[in-house]
Amino acid sequence: MQKALDYARQHFAAFLDELIALLAIPSVSTDTAYAGDVARAAQWLADHLAALGAQGAHAVPTDGHPVVVGEYYAAEDRPTILIYGHYDVQPPDPLDLWESPPFDPVIRDGALYARGASDDKGQLFMWMKALEAYVKTYGTPPINMKFILEGEEECGSTHLPPFIQARKDTLAADVVLISDTALFAPGVPSITCGLRGMSYVEVTLTGPNRDLHSGVYGGAIENPINALAKLIADLHDADHRVTIEGFYDDVRPLTEEERSEISRLPFDGCAWAAEVGVTHMRAETGYSPLEGTTARPTLDCNGIWGGYIGEGAKTVLPSKASAKISMRLVPDQDPEDIVHRIRAHFETHTPLTMHVHVKAVHGAVPVLVNTQSPAMEAAAVALEQVYGQRPHFTRIGGSIPVVADFRRLMGLDSVLMGFGLDTDAIHSPNEHFGIDRFEQGIESIIRFMALYGSEG
Fold first, then answer.
1. What is the sign, positive or negative, of the torsion defined by CA atoms of 15, 16, 19, 25?
2. pLDDT mean across residues, the chain
3. In whole angstroms, what is the distance from residue 230 CA to residue 247 CA?
């Protein structure tokens, strides 16, 4: 292992230059105008894997964007890991809020600024550099490695589950490794063991058959915007609990041990809120803010529209009003069941003066992974060696649907060993990734590979 660590330190500047070249490719998956760039990024990664000696490294076409695969076989008696990452990125808009162009990477104040720096090009690239460090010093890594790098994570991963299903045999492994999460805090290592799921719906209330003059009809024809606003407001009670009938029926309660572990995390709620300009927090009664954001189900209106929103005044009573609503779920809630429940809720509570349509947009299954597995222990020891303290096992509030897909389709658990920070501005202008964390990530992965390889 030591030779690999030394190689990584000696070649770190070259690693950084290569990452900059990858980040310069605007692989925005949600916009068809960038389709050629997404394909170019896929080919760049496939060529890079091939240059490291990975067998079968190529970009596989799908009905959407390509999936990059490749593998490095070490020995029959060594464990096999399947490395997942995504090379597509979010749109860079709004461009005027970037301090430097999003696809012209720059290093500033110890961080690399570019779209995709943290989410997820910088983090997936650490695995390639760890592989290179072993190949260049020992001739082979201490474990068998397979790569599956997708180009549609930011637009729903539509084609990934059937891709996995069709290639279960060639992708077979002992565990999945994913670096697409964050450390709990700067210098505070953590491994994600829980992900919330999601149900996402769009709700539309329709009243009159056309927009009406509010002076002529107002006072007798109910306004869909008013009605929808009240329905949304009533989705929480005074304790900030969701009022959808049966919403909590399948929620797995937090154990006292889990709550104790969460309470031990170095979390300054007031400082955390102040970072986003908030002076007071609102959590579900009986739960801390950190429990509320990671381990309890939630409901949020993500957008609402209807009527006239242009410049000046237009006295219109709108025909329709719509909203997008997301619900973060915890074990053992089922996304489809929750959609049925919110649809029933709206159908029950919508005024007789109008009708409602609830459209399911997408969902994700909540996941808890085994923290006692050999791979998880190897990751924990590796992080402890790098950061000088045992990592925390944490739940996060977001969703990574592919984790549930790997479990459902292949029976594999995942180790989520990420090195981002919540302050990296992913999905926002000025996304960045700390140079120190890029280096620490590579070192941690090199150590993980050695530790997990000793299990073989």
1. negative
2. 96
3. 19
Counting Cα atoms < 13 Å in the Cβ hemisphere of 35 gives 7
Our CA dihedral for 124, 367, 245, 237, rounded to 10 degrees, sits at -60
Read off the tokens for 18: 């290569």
* 133-160 residue pLDDT tens: 999 999 999 999 999 999 999 998 999 9
Cα–Cα nearest to 446, from 19, 148, 135? 135
Beta bridge partners of residue 111, listed in sequence order? 108, 434
From 22, 74, 84, select the one nearest 47 (Cα to Cα): 22
Cα–Cα dist 21/231, whole Å? 49
The DSSP output letter for 6 is H
199 and 329 in contact (C-beta within 8 Å)?
Answer: yes
Distance CA 42, CA 46 (A): 6
What residue has token string 């606003």? 229
Q: Which two tokens stand for residue 85?
A: 């990452």
Residue 138: which residues within 8 A CB-CB, separation 6 or more?
A: 3, 4
Distances 344 to 32, 81, 350, 359 between C-alpha atoms, Å: 36, 43, 10, 12
82 beta partners: 146, 176
Task: Indicate the burial class of 455 (C-beta count within 10 angstroms; 0-12, 13-18, 19 or more).
Answer: middle
Unique residue bearing structure tokens 């961080």: 111
DSSP strand pairing (212-213 vs 175-178): unpaired
Place of tokens 């180790």: 415
pLDDT per residue as tens digits for the range 300-358: 999 999 999 999 999 999 999 999 999 999 999 999 999 999 999 999 999 999 999 99
Question: Strand 175-178 relative to strand 80-86: parallel, antiparallel, unpaired?
Answer: parallel
Contacts of 376 (CB under 8 A, 6+ apart): 191, 193, 369, 370, 415
Which tokens in the block code for residue 282?
């609102």
Token couple for 393: 């096992």
Q: Compute the half-sphere exposure of residue 93: CA atoms within 13 Å on the CB side of its CA.
A: 4
Neighbours of 380 (CB within 10 A): 22
